[in-house]
Structures are given as structure tokens and as C-alpha cells.
Design a protein that fits this description.
Largest sheet: 2 strands, antiparallel
Helix content: 55-70%
Strand content: under 5%
Oligomer: single chain
Strand order of the largest sheet: 1-2
Shape: globular
Distance between the termini: 52 Å
Number of strands: 2
């Protein structure tokens, strides 16, 4: 082999390039694991998850103390709880979706960048070999994990509370078909995933707002206000033309997952809408964060 061939081979595949890429990937996963550890070790996060877990427990205890009676009013599935405890988790999700879940997601997403800026740690993160894009991706990915953890907390706490206080058995779906306890549990987890998916757009909005300010409380509050405003607009007939584009449009459509066979239409619509919000507000977050002076 000639010296020119050696030079071409070396230039095409620089020595140490692959190990360097592997090292960067390992550093990225290490940063993500560290961010998750910090997030879930915070007392604030633990307190929010504890409050979410208390929602289905309180519902189950209230129904039990009322001798399992139902008035025919209240959240969906409420009257079915006394016959089957598996409905506690589903009812708790319906109760938590309008306020509790958006509130907790707003706190986590709104604090993602502004919290680092307010404590002065943001400049040190960017001085280390993290990079602004990677930092945004890791912060958003951590918020996504929290969305899933929050919905699973509500669902699993409801299932456990229902199992303790009420009988557990085959579930009659909205379509009239009956499924086993095992399949009902799988559908409950699928519903939790659906609800978590519906919160991704809010997490992206919170991330964007968090890049606009160094005051985390303001970013948290603004994110929660966006969620509430979306739901208010969704109830007004005057804004009906906006409804399909609202963040919360598909939040309560998981009833389609309780049919046989499963109707995936609302799931696909929910995913498409939330990914659109993630794309738009993710791009806005990067555009803002890429030009933000945090090192001076």
C-alpha cells in the first residue's frame, strides 16, 4: 500500500474517532441518568407523586365508606368501582387529568432550564462538554419520564387501593365484551401510557417557557395556565373551530381503549397532536436557548 493510500485511509477514518463518539454517547447517557436521579430524589418530586398516589386512595376510601353506593353523578366509571376495584385507577385518572397531572408536569417542565439558571448551575453545565442541544434533549426526556411516572403512580395506586377495598374480577368493557383480569391490567397500563402521551405537548411548552426566564416559579405558573386555558377554550362553543388544535383535545379520549377490539383512532390522533406540539415548541426552545447568554 502506498503512502497516499495510507493517508487517505487515515483521513477517512481518523484514529480515535469511534472511541470518541462512544465516549460522547456514554457521557450523554450518564448525564441523562444523573438528571433522572436528581429529579426523582428531590423532595418536591416525591411530594407530588405522593399527592398523585393519594387521589385514587381517597376516591376508593370515600366509595367504601359510602357502602359502595353511587349517585349516578361524578367522574366516569365511578359507579363501577364497588363492583370491580380495577376501575379505581381509571376514575382517578379522569379526576387527575384536568388539574393534578398538568400541575405536576408544569412544575417539572417549567423548572427544567429556569431552575438551573436561578441557582447558577446552568453556566457550569454548558461549560462542561454537554452542549445546548443535548441539555435541552435531556431535560425534555426527563420530563417525559416524569409524565409516565406520574400517570403510572395514579393508575397503580388505584389498582392497589381497589384490590384492597373492593372485589377484583373480569372487566366488562364499554363495548359489552368481558376480559380477564390480566388483560384488564394491561389495558389499564395502556391507558396510563395514553395519558402520559397526552402530556408531552405540555412538557414541550413548559421547556420553551423555561428558556424565556430565570424565574422558575413564573415558568411553572405559565405552563399550568396554558393547560387550564386550553381546557377552558375546549368547553366554549364559540371556539369550536380551535378545538382539534388544542393541547387538551384528546386528553379524555382513552375510553376507546376499553372496547373490543381496541379503537386506535383517538390514540393516533393524540400522538399526532402531541408530537406536533413537541416539534413546534422544541424548535422554539432551541431557537431561544441557542441565542441566550448564560455564560456572562
Amino acid at each position: 500500500m502506498s503512502s497516499s493510500d495510507v493517508n487517505e485511509t487515515t483521513s477517512a477514518h481518523p484514529v480515535g474517532a469511534a472511541p470518541a463518539r462512544a465516549e460522547r454517547r456514554a457521557a450523554g447517557w450518564g448525564f441523562f441518568a444523573s438528571e433522572l436521579s436528581v429529579l426523582f430524589r428531590r423532595r418536591r418530586t416525591q411530594a407530588m407523586l405522593a399527592v398523585l398516589a393519594a387521589v385514587p386512595i381517597l376516591i376508593a376510601v370515600a366509595i367504601r365508606l359510602a357502602d359502595g353506593g353511587g349517585s349516578g353523578r361524578g367522574p366516569a366509571f365511578l359507579d363501577r368501582i364497588s363492583q370491580n376495584g380495577l376501575f379505581v385507577g381509571m376514575t382517578a385518572l379522569v379526576v387527575s387529568i384536568p388539574l393534578f397531572l398538568p400541575l405536576t408536569v408544569g412544575v417539572v417542565a417549567g423548572d427544567s432550564i429556569s431552575g438551573e439558571a436561578s441557582t447558577g448551575t446552568l453556566r457550569y453545565l454548558l461549560v462542561s462538554p454537554v452542549g445546548r442541544i443535548r441539555l435541552l434533549v435531556v431535560k425534555f426526556a426527563s420530563a417525559v419520564v416524569f409524565c409516565l411516572a406520574a400517570t403510572l403512580t395514579v393508575s397503580l395506586a388505584g389498582i392497589l387501593a381497589g384490590a384492597v377495598l373492593f372485589p377484583i374480577g373480569p372487566v366488562t368493557l364499554l363495548s359489552g365484551d368481558t376480559v380477564s383480569v390480566g388483560e384488564a391490567l394491561l389495558r389499564a397500563l395502556l391507558i396510563a401510557g395514553y395519558v402520559a402521551l397526552g402530556l408531552l405537548g405540555l412538557a414541550a411548552i413548559g421547556l420553551f417557557i423555561s428558556t424565556l426566564t430565570d424565574a422558575p416559579v413564573g415558568a411553572m405558573a405559565a405552563t399550568v395556565v396554558v393547560a387550564i386555558l386550553s381546557q377552558v377554550l375546549g368547553q366554549l362553543s364559540q371556539t369550536e373551530f380551535l378545538h382539534p388544535f388544542l393541547l387538551s383535545y384528546h386528553w379524555l379520549d382513552f375510553a376507546d381503549l376499553l372496547r373490543q377490539p381496541i379503537d386506535w383512532t383517538s390514540f393516533g390522533g393524540n400522538a399526532g397532536l402531541q408530537l406536533a406540539y413537541v416539534a413546534v415548541f422544541g424548535a422554539l426552545a432551541y431557537a431561544r436557548f441557542a441565542t441566550k447568554d448564560v455564560l456572562s
